[in-house]
Amino acid sequence: MQVHVADHPLINHKLTYLRDRRTDSPTFRRLAEELVTLLAYEATREVRTEPIDLETPVGPTTGIKLANPKPVIVPILRAGLGMLEGMVRLLPSAEVGFLGMVRDEETLEVSAYANRLPDSLHGRQVYVIDPMLATGHTLIMAFEFLRDLGADDITAVCLIAAPEGIETVREAVKDIGIPVTLVVGAIDDHLNEQGYIVPGLGDAGDRLYGVV
């Protein structure tokens, strides 16, 4: 698994305000959207393209366009929805699927409760978006789910990650059998006993949409 930390002053600036407990939900949503667009530039460096011939106002040339089949963006519900607009802005022609996954706060086990994906992802590049990589179990389950549908290349985009989670995912990816890339804005210190990233930014879903 390749891990890329997108260390950039603008990313760090936006992360600072995301972490601040005083940041309200509307501002948090806007910052998350802006941040994922910055991360998406790094995440899409290896997006598949194909040549295309065209005419400029002064003559012929050759450019590139996204190759078929188009990539698929998969936000992990519900917090991943807060990153979707920023990702779609960079890949407007990509298709969008959804995976609903929930973590038991006592056992930290992850289970899927919703799936809105094509029946086959054969030959597709898939971009999974989820604000936080904490224990890593959610991403592992998502990777296995997508691989079983035929995905052959997966990139995960997370705002922040815990080192324990990264290592857990790294070990699991060895058995998944397809290329996986992880792009994050920052790697934090550790996980606490409740499985939350420290210093982190709290519960991303609650901060995006409020407590329900």
UniProtKB/TrEMBL annotation:
UniProt xrefs under Gene3D superfamilies: 3.40.50.2020
Pathway it works in: Pyrimidine metabolism; UMP biosynthesis via salvage pathway; UMP from uracil: step 1/1
Magnesium in keyword set: yes
Catalytic activity, as annotated: UMP + diphosphate = 5-phospho-alpha-D-ribose 1-diphosphate + uracil
Domain of life the protein comes from: Bacteria
Task of the protein: Catalyzes the conversion of uracil and 5-phospho-alpha-D-ribose 1-diphosphate (PRPP) to UMP and diphosphate.
Designated name of the protein: Uracil phosphoribosyltransferase
Source organism of the structure: Arsenicicoccus bolidensis
